[in-house]
Amino acid sequence: MKNKYPLKQAIITGMISGIFAVFSFSIINSWNRQQAWGINPATIRGLIGLVTLLILGAGIYVAMQSIKKLNGGKLLYGQAIKAGIFVGIITGLIMALWGFIYCEYINPGYATYMVNEGKRALAASGQTPQQVENSVPDLQKQYSTGGQIIQAIVGQSVCGIVISLIMGLFVRTKNK
To answer: Which phi and psi angles does 39 have, rounded to 5°?
Structure first.
């Protein structure tokens, strides 16, 4: 059995995840502000991130099935893991590209907005003004374009590994 890499599935998974993340955050956060729901944008961002992990899991599953089909119904555990890691890395890179486009072109005020919202949330949690100000450099790093890119690549890649390790146990061809 040759090593095959599910490039098509990885690109589709990355595009769906990236587009979903960018546009769902924009829409939901806009509704949040218009309707005065009072949900912290970081919470919205986090929940959307969890959904992108479900998309990643689905993409990994489809990639594993594709490799299995190409191998005549056989899929070794190592092949399953390689397919999943590949999908995770490609998805992370594509999501990083979408994050860059979002932060630089669609919503160039994103980092400033998120830092200000983070400061507001810290103050509301009872932190002193000094504690809030001491947190600003970390918030700026986290919500910067570079921070968004690193989070996308690392997050999707690491989660791709974990999902692959678990899913591969169930999708691989079992020895009879």
So the answer is: -85, 130
Alpha helix (H) residue ranges in 71-128: 77-101, 110-124
Q: Tokens in use for 6?
A: 């599910």
Q: How confident is the model at residue 5 (pLDDT cuts 50, 70, 90)?
A: confident
Angle formed by the axes of helices 41-70 and 77-101, nearest 10°: 140
Residue 139 in any domain: the answer is yes
Asked, for residue 1, whether it belongs to a domain, the answer is no
Tokens, residue 107 = 């919503």
The residue whose two tokens read 């860059």 is 100
Whole-model pTM: value is 0.91
Q: Is 166 part of any domain?
A: yes
Contact 41, 61 (CB under 8 A): no
Please give the single-letter amino acid code of residue 7.
Answer: L
CB 41 within 8 A of CB 113: yes
Into how many domains does the chain fold? 1
The DSSP output letter for 144 is S
- What are the pLDDT digits (tens) for 109-154? 999 999 999 999 999 999 999 999 999 999 999 999 999 999 999 9
